[in-house]
Amino acid sequence: MNPLVQALGRADPGLMTELETLYKDFHRNPELSMQEVRTAKIVADAMQSLGYEVTRNVGVTGVVCVMKNGAGPTVMLRADMDGLPMAEHTGLPYASKVTARDADGVEVGVAHSCGHDMHMTWMIGAARILAMNRTAWQGTLMIVFQPGEETAEGANAMVHDWGEDRFPKPDIILGQHVMVGAAGTVSYRPGVTLSAGDSLKIRLFGRGSHGSQPQTSIDPVIMAAATTLRLQTIVSREIAPSEPAVLTIGSLQAGTKENIIPDDATIKLNMRTFSEETREYMLKSIRRICCAECDASGAERPPEFSTINSYPLTENDLAATQKVAHAFQQQFGENAQLAPRPASASEDFSVFGRAWNVPYVFWFVGGTDPALYAQAQREKTVNKIPSNHSPKFAPTIHPTLETGLQAMLTAAAAWLCAGCVEV
After folding, report:
1. 3-class SS at 362?
2. Between the CA of residue 143 and those of 64, 79, 123, 236, 416, what are the distances in Å?
3. Mind telling me the catalytic residues?
4. What pLDDT does residue 230 have?
């Protein structure tokens, strides 16, 4: 066992109680992307009290915390802070009842339905163990609390606000995410780990008219319907069956009344891909099909495309992942597992590594009650467990809290503790 996890075992027995209280507070008080003012103050104040050099408001609400502890590598640990614009339906005594106005001014429910509350709690716990056991490690530790992951804004905002000499350049970037899976387990994967995600808004222009006089119109509803059907053929007929890809149209909006043919229609879609080649091909195919369907309808102007958000591939560095995997196997034994395939979720974590040409590793921590997960496996109902972004997503606090804390300390120790992890 590495000295940082040993230090965790020797920590004040009240630590886990404190972290659980902190987690419930985060969960009860979520904030929307790029609005994490209260959350950022809590984490910044906590880190400052531990002796870190804290810089606030990096990339709007981001927090960067640095602790220098002699010669050695610079290790960056990252956690995200934002909640989701959705009401929570977990029934938990600490469930969120928060509402807020989103970027469009619409009042929405807000919930930590993706686990970022757990991520922050893990990070503050790890930061405390590292700060209180500086004789066990050497190097420079940089802990980043990032806003706006759910809108793909936060990592880019922080990178653009970083500056050349404002903070040390990391040698390795580490991050983790709670997911459906048996609590007490961790999983990792070298190479492509999470898909690229692209969300587009496409506006199709027709010519409005009375519903009784369709001959005087160019009907954008028909145009949008035909486009929706044709877009589904990109994956089913243009992408090889061996190449995973997803294209989902989540919103199709047109008109206000049954007897009015509207002037325009709007499609909002999301696509997930696992290679840059497939991503580029699908983006070109979307444009080709939308323009062709508009031409086929006799539209008098071409469609208008805008990007809602864009997430790059999360592609773990091979050598660094091997190092983390070895450390996990020593710490967790058979509870450290190789993920069999990439996940179709997307993250902006890799923006940091891509921007700075720095290796990174991102892994997953199970958050489902082990007995419940084992039963679901036996009954082949794992897909029915409320997952991330479900209004009923609710990680079991223990042992998820302990496992994520151990995982972050174990991975960090692979670089910061010379000789404490055999590689």
Report:
1. strand
2. 6, 8, 8, 43, 14
3. 80, 150
4. 98
Report d(CA 165, CA 133) in Å as an integer: 28
The tens digit of pLDDT for each residue in 311-350 reads: 999 999 999 999 999 999 999 999 999 999 999 999 999 9
**What are 269-320's pLDDT values in tens digits?**
999 999 999 999 999 999 999 999 999 999 999 999 999 999 999 999 999 9
User: CA–CA separation, 154 vs 309, rounded Å?
Assistant: 11
Full 3-state SS string of 4-42: HHHHHHCCCCCHHHHHHHHHHHHHHCCCCCCCCHHHHHH
Is the separation of the CB atoms in 396 and 183 below 8 Å?
A: yes
What are residue 179's DSSP bridge partners? 366
Tokens read off for 9: 């075992």
**How many whole angstroms separate alpha carbon 14 and alpha carbon 25?**
17
The answer to whether the peptide bond before residue 399 is cis (omega within 30 degrees of 0) is yes
Dihedral sign for Cα 310, 315, 320, 325, please: positive
User: What is this structure's pTM?
Assistant: 0.94
Instruction: Let me know if 168 is exposed, middle or buried by CB neighbors in 10 A (0-12, 13-18, 19+).
Output: middle
Q: What is the pLDDT of residue 293?
A: 97
Tally the residues of the chain.
Answer: 423
> Using an 8 Å Cβ cutoff, are 174 and 411 in contact?
yes
